[in-house]
Each structure stands twice: as C-alpha cells, then as structure tokens.
Amino acid sequence: MAKYFDVHPDNPQPRTIAQVAESIRSDALIAYPTDSCYALGCRLGSRSGIDRIRTIRKLDDRHHFTLVCRDFAQLGQFVRIDNDVFRAVKASTPGSYTFILPATKEVPRMLLHPKKKTVGVRIPDHVVTQALLAELGEPLLSSTLLLPGEEEPMTQGWEIKDLLDHQVDAVLDSGDCGTEPTTVIDFSDGEAEIVRRGAGDVTRFE
C-alpha cells in the first residue's frame, strides 16, 4: 500500500519532505503534484522506477522521460544548450514547460531517446515540488501521470491513492495543482518545435 502524505501547499512540512526524499533515495516510486498536473517520479538512476512507470503508463522505448530540476544551474548539468536556446529556455522557467534537448554524459543511457540521444528537462513553479527537489539534491526522473486510454492526467491525490495504491510507494497531496500537462518544446535540432500544447503559453515559440 502507498503511503499518503498530506503536505501544506505554501509551507510544506520539512519533516514530511525529508521522509519522501529518503524514500526516493531508497528506490521508491512516488506520485506528486506539479504546476501542470500530477507526475510519477523516482530517483535518477532507478531502473525499477523506470520499469514501473513504463508499466503504469504502457510506454514504449521512444517515450521521452523528463528530468525535473530545481533550477537552471542543475538543468545545465544534464543537457547541452547553446546561447539562443539558453535565452528561450531561461525566459520560460520556472514554469509549465518541458524542453527536449541533447543530453550530456550525466544522463543515464536508459533515459535517452534511442535514436536522438535526447532527454526532457523542466523546472516547475510549484512550492512543494521545489521543496522536495531541494531536499533530494538531484533531479527527479518523471513522467506525467496520464493513464492508458485517458485523455486527461490525474489531478486529485486521494483518487491516485485509491487507484494506484499497489503500484506506487507514496502519494503527496498538497491540494489543487494544475490540470494540464506541460507544453513540450523540442530544441534538439536548435529550432523550437512545439510537440505538445499544454499549460505553458506557446506564443514565443511559434
């Protein structure tokens, strides 16, 4: 059964956040809120976490996983980014965007797109997620909590607990979060390609 953590949306309890971070370090798979919607998350190098996310969402090996980063400095360790792209990404973070970029050697091979050698990265604008990332000290490997056959992602912590009780190890609930997935922008070829229109405004990328 998944542990259920009720977290204050504006002042997340440090003890609770520390508990969740420790469980992630111990290979837990969690469901957690972001500024776009709920996501599944595990530690960066977790093979079992990746396998469990693939199973829950029925994903193939072409799916882009996302590294959810605390800030731009952390993001820069995991992707290669030139000056023009740097300015565009910097101006849009933190926020409800995922950017697909060429990965550095810091990214485990099992996370890379098999042909492009790219990975998704994002910096969320969400107090609870940011507190968790600060405590964890590294990015969360994540994927939108969008179940097979569903058109919209899950947005209620208690519903996730009921439905995925035996498939995840913990659920963080801080009340309302976003209801749309992130907007996905592919910069892997240097030019902005809008892959998915979501919560982030696409105007600057058109």
Automatic annotation (TrEMBL):
Please name the PROSITE patterns in this protein's record: YRDC
Q: Which GO terms describe its molecular function?
A: double-stranded RNA binding
| Residues covered by the YrdC-like domain | 14-200
Q: Which NCBIfam families match?
A: L-threonylcarbamoyladenylate synthase
- What's the protein here called? L-threonylcarbamoyladenylate synthase
